[in-house]
Amino acid sequence: MSVDIKKRILEEAQKRFFRYGIKSVSVDDIIQALAISKKTFYENFTNKNELVEEIAQHFLQQITDKINSTLDYKNPIDRIIFLYTFLLESFKKCNAVFLYDIKKYYPDIFLVFDEFKDNALKNIFIDLIREGQQAGIFIEDFDIEVIFKIHMKRFNNIIERELLPQKDLFDPVFNKIMKISLIGISTLKGHRIIEEKFKYQNLPKNEQEKI
């Protein structure tokens, strides 16, 4: 098995799945684009399901690695804003059809996405909220797990293009939704920090970095 060939297959398949969805892209489409034989494909992957599973696992692992290596901002609100915008950036790469196809045709693989949200993201979110509570940024009188489920439901609706499907994922309206969500669980001290942070959301990224 050639590692280079396998990597090329994964990259080509991911590009096509993210753009067109999984159902509409065949193994033949992938091998024709790469000018390889069907035998070469099946030397690297047992079937299309295995290919889809590796792409899903790799996609989520990249997100996890990035979060773990960069989630070091100075306060919980900065980190939550980073987490939210980074996840939007990551899922913007894939068409909503990709997520729809995984949910409908690959339920076992879709469970991997659910486990990622229910474990990795949940643990990070709860840790950030508790840290914010200790710092007097977030109020203490609410169920963190319920708030997490509400946030994830809204986030799912955004990335699956069920909420305001005509809007780009980086439309300012989604920043306002995030701001409102944070204000709802924040103390007056938290309100001031949030208002200050979102003042700069419409500035160019290089200008934000100077602040």
Which descriptors would you attach to this protein?
mainly alpha, Arc Repressor Mutant, subunit A, Tetracycline Repressor, domain 2, 2 domains, 11 helices, 73% helix
Please give a structural write-up.
It is a single chain. The chain is mainly alpha-helical and 211 residues long. The protein has two domains: 1-45, Arc Repressor Mutant, subunit A (Orthogonal Bundle), CATH 1.10.10; 47-208, Tetracycline Repressor, domain 2 (Orthogonal Bundle). Helices cover 73% and strands 0% of the residues. The protein has eleven helices and no strands. Helix 1 crosses helix 2 (27-34), helix 4 packs parallel to helix 7 and helix 9 (172-183) packs antiparallel against helix 10 (188-199). The longest helix is centred in the middle third of the chain and has 28 residues, at 107-134. It starts with a helix and ends with a helix.
Q: What does the main sheet amount to?
A: none
Name the shape in a single word: elongated
Round the mean pLDDT to the nearest integer and report it.
86
Please give the CATH architecture of the largest domain.
Orthogonal Bundle
Query: In the CATH hierarchy, what is the class of the largest domain?
Result: Mainly Alpha
User: Ends: how far apart?
Assistant: 50 Å
Low-confidence segments: none
Helical amount among residues, as a percent range? over 70%
- The DSSP helix count reads 11
- The CATH superfamily of the largest domain appears as Tetracycline Repressor, domain 2
Query: How many distinct beta strands?
Result: 0
- The share of residues in extended strands comes to under 5%
CATH topology of the largest domain: Tetracycline Repressor, domain 2
Series of H and E elements = HHHHHHHHHHH
How many domain units? 2
Alpha carbon gyration radius:
20 Å
